[in-house]
Every structure is written in structure tokens, then in C-alpha cells.
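Q: Hi! First time asking for a complex rather than a single chain. Here are the components, and I think there are three in total. Is that enough to go on?
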Amino acid sequence: MTHTSNRTISDAVTAETIATAGEVAPEAVARYAVGLGDDALILAQRLGAWIAHAPELEEDVALGNIALDQLGHARSFLTYASSAWGKTEDDLAYFRDESEFFNRQLFEQPNGDFAQTIARQLVASVYFDGLYRALSLSADPTLAAIAAKAVKEVDYHVDHSVQWLLRLGLGTEISNERMQRGLDAVWPFVAELFSVDPLSENLAGIAVDPASLQADFDRVVLPAIVDAGLTVPTAPAARGGGRSGVHTEYLGPLLAEMQVLARAHPEATW
Amino acid sequence: MSVRAANTDEGTVDEAGAARFAELLANEQRVEPTDWMPEGYRKTLIRQISQHAHSEIIGMQPEGNWITRAPSLKRKAILMAKVQDEAGHGLYLYSAAQTLGIDRETMFDQLITGAAKYSSIFNYPTPTWADMGSIGWLVDGAAICNQVPLCRASYGPYGRAMVRICKEESFHQRQGFEILLHLMRGTEAQRAMAQESVNRWYAPALMMFGPPDDDSPNSRQSMAWNIKRFSNDDLRQRFVDMLVPQAEILGVTLPDPHIKWNEERGHFDFGDLDWTEFHEVLAGNGPANTIRVARRREAHEDGAWVREAARAYADARAAEAGASQKIAS
Amino acid sequence: MRSSRGLSHVHAGSLHAPDETMAVRNARDLYTRRAEGVSIWVVPASAITASDPDARGAFFESPQGKEYRHATYYTESDAVPHL
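A: Yes, that's all I need. Here is the structure of the assembled complex.
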């Protein structure tokens, strides 16, 4: 059997290359990276649940690609973060409790129907796009490298969400209604993305100021919603607090499922 | 896809076409969609390719079941990529079947109404993580034994789809083997999990090659048509010969006391399989038959409004483009 | 699909999509999971005009017997360097 060509083995930054490089993250940087890693991990966990349940086989493949990209980003951030405490990505992913997860609440919101997933992906992808673009200029070279790889992938995720936003918004009456409901469901969690990140304090030049991302986000997302024949929701913002370990009721069950096997065998490696 | 239909009128005998078809097979050449082919050949291929496609699609479920619970992030990524590959392989195969004049909607309908068959192996449940290892090592291993010869199947689009699939699947068996290897090198509970899983999957994997040759009525014709290249029993033997040394490396025991090297034959002997069980599962009485089909049906029905929206959007845009062209002229 | 710069596009496979925009994306997701391509073209099946398979003989007969179009036909100069 011929094995796939080496073209796939590239110099891209991955969890493996970061672990091998052995760069130890300063503790403050590590705490910031945990928040970034949790955002990507929780979203990837959500998206992974779509595989084999998507509306079309083509979409199984598409959502799978996006979930894999995000899982890759999560693994890079968490691997780098874990170096500060002599741990691994899996120690962080599987052996922290709910209040020790620092993801923004948007990412733990349930998949809902396809429209709600697209609404969440639209917000998430445009947010990540701005964040990673800014982070690729970070004074911390590892964070910058992770972000530089991620931003190219996220560009495509934005396109995927926008294409579906248009089709669902302008498709049929039913799809328009569902897309609007999807946007309404995730909108309360948008404001938190641009609120103060307590994990980024004292990291000037290294961390990205979330407030600085809002203008670009609005410039992309708001007209896209209108172009798709939909209304920008006006729902008040949720309380937030993800970066301080405060979560909606959805995170607990997600973690219970994700961690169940690893915690049943705390001594095991896999 | 509209490929010019092959001459499929059963009534008409296209003697020149038939002669050309026989010549292609005799010269080990490929038959292409536009060539004349016997109706039976076409039907056999549609059945086999669509069943194969369905198997890939249904096969996403037993493993998809563990994506959200994979015990490490690396394993989660590998599993996601693998299940996603299976969707891709299903798509390659549906495309190949379409060149024979059946459309994907029809095939998919046959799947979700329970009319079509798919590989029985996917009607077994995956209660433990070790099953991800067993599926990769045993199920994908058996599938690869079956599939590598299919890369030379006489029907061009099928052979080409199989080449792509085999290339991509080369990682599937290895990752399964490595899952088991890690379990066997792990804690006592992990080793027990691996052995228990191999016990469950061994016999069903051997049955994937189909019934014994003397009980396989369609095999002979398929071999004459160069669709099937080796008999069920030959492939099964080849598989067992591969498994025994691999099991030794893993340190798992294959659940068959009759496995023994036969110097004279140059092969491993192995015990008889319980074919009543095989036919039960095939007949739809397997542990997970109804769940598998129902889940795929549910996904399809839940997604109907999405597909409709995409179609409506495309139609509206095409109409708009048509209208603006008219204005321009 | 173009596998890398400098090579021509080669047929990779078929797929379903509601429109051409999604077709390119579906092709990207389905056929480039292992970095197989740097450029993709999609064409609706209905836009393909093919040669008539039944006229294969007549259509492709002409080059047969015109071996003099190939360098290998000219054996007398075999031993001559740089020719």
C-alpha cells in the first residue's frame, strides 16, 4: 500500500511542534492562552457533535474540517499554556472542573438547529479572524505563530458561515425564520467577546485588547445580516463572566461528556 | 450528473458492444460509463457500489459515537478526521454509482427507508473506547483486504474511487492498531477493555468477507466480470494470516482456540464461524440495525429545510441572472 | 484540480452542490483534505460536451499509422549525438 505523500507534512505550527520545541510559557501568558484554548476547544467539541448528523453529507465534511481546525488551535494554545505548569494539553482539557474553564459563554451554547449553529459560527469565526490577525503580531512568538497559522484557516470559516447565512436568510420563509431565531439565540453572548479579559491584564503587547476588535466585527457582521434579509437582534447582553469561570448551564453537561472516559481512568495514557 | 446512458435495453442485443465488452475484460482493460455493458453487470455494480457507499455513511455512526468522549485531544482529532473521511468515501462512491444511471437521491432513499443493505458489521454497537481500536484494526483491516483488489475492478469509475479510498484509508487501520497498542501497554483496566473488545469484533470482522465460497452464489459471476478479484475464503485466509502475528505484537488473544499454523498449507488454520448469527444480522436483527438507519433518516429529514433553502437561493439567483441577461440584450 | 503550481488541472471527481459557489467550497472540503490541490475548477455536468463514444473508431482513427509524427520513427539517426 502506498502511503500518502509527504506533502501533508509541513512546517505548520501544531500542538506537537510546540511540545517538541519545549518553549515554557510565562505564567501570565499561560493563563491568557488557557482562555484562548478553551474558546476553541469548547466550540470544536460542540461542532464535533454535528459529524454524521449534518443536513447534507457535504456538510458533514465541511463542518468536520472546521471542527478539526478549531481543535488544532485549541491544542496549540493549551499545549503552550500547559508548559508553564509542567502539564500537558490533556491535563488541562480533561482534569479541570467547570469553574476552571475560561471560555467565553458563546462557545458553550448548544448547537440548536443548523441555523443556530451557523449563527454561532458566524459570530465566532469573525471574532476569531480579528483576534488571530491581531494576535499574530503579539510580542510572544509562540502565540504569534499559533495565530498566524490559525487566521488563514479562520478566513475560510468566515466564508462558510457567510455563504450559509445568505442561503438560509434568503432561501425560504422557513429558513429565514430559523436563521433569525438562531441569531436571536446567540446575540446575547456577542457583547462578552469584546468585554475586558481579566486574563490579559499586564500583558500589553502580548495579549489583544478585546474592545479593539469590535469595530471590525461590526463592519463585517452587521451588513452581512442585513444583506441576508435578516434583522440585527437587539436583545440585551447576557451577564458574561466566562473568562472568570462563570458559565451558563450548558457547559457542565458538555464537560461531563467530554471528560467522562479520561476521568474514569486517571492513571491511563491513550 | 447526466452521463450518456449505456445501452441498457435488455431486449436489444448489441453484438458489437457485447464483443467489445468481452474484449475489454479479456484484456484486463477498464469498462467506462459510455461503453456497452450487460444489464446484469450494471445491476451488480449498482448494488455493490451503493451498498459500499451506504456502509461508509452508516459506518460513521459507531465511531462518531465516541468523538465527543475521546480520552485525549489527539485521539479526538484523529477520530474526527477518520469519521469525516468516511463521509468523503461515501461521496466518492455515490458519484461512481451515479455514472451507472442511478441518482444519489434514489440511493439515499433506499438507505433511509431500510430498503438497501450495507455492511452488517456496522450493526454492532460500540460500548467502549477500545472498540475504536478494534474497528480500525479488525474492521478497517478486513475492509482494506477487500478493497485493495477492488482498485483493479473492471469498472473504471469504481476502480478510481477505490484507489483514492485505499490511499486515504491507509491511516485508518494503523490508528486503530495504535489505540489497542496503547491500551495493552496501559493499566490493567485498559488491557481488559482491549481484550474484551477484540473478543467481540474478531468473528464479525472475519464475516465481512462474506459467506464461504460454496455458499456465495453471486461470487462466481462477479469474478468472471473482473469486479471481484479473489474469492471470499481466499481473502479471509489472507486476513487471518496477517492478524495472527499482529495480535502477538499487541499481546491480545484472538478468540479462536483453533488458530494454528499449518505447515503443509502454509497458512493458519482457524475455526468455523457462526453463520446463523451473520444471516440474522444481515436480515436486520443485529443489535443496532434500526438505530443506525433511524439516525441517518433523522439527520436527513431534519436537514430537509436546509437543502430546500439552498436550492431556493440558487434558483432565485439563476432567475435573476437570466432576467438581467435579457435586459442587457 | 491543480496539485501544485506549474502543473495542469486534472479531473479529481464529482460532487453535488446547489450552486457554483457552494460547488467550489464542497470541492475544497471533499477533495483537498490532504493538501492535494492549490487550485480548483468546477463545471456543471450539463456543460460538458463529449465526443460520441459510439463513433470512437472514426473519431480517433486518423493518428493510427502516422508513426512519422513521433521521434522514435527516425531510427537511422539513433547513433547521432544531440539529435
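A: The interface with chain C takes residues 1-4, 32, 34-35, 81, 84-85, 88, 91-92, 95, 98, 104, 161, 164, 168, 307, 310-311, 313-314, 317-318 of chain B (CB under 8 Å). Let me know if you'd like any chain examined more closely.
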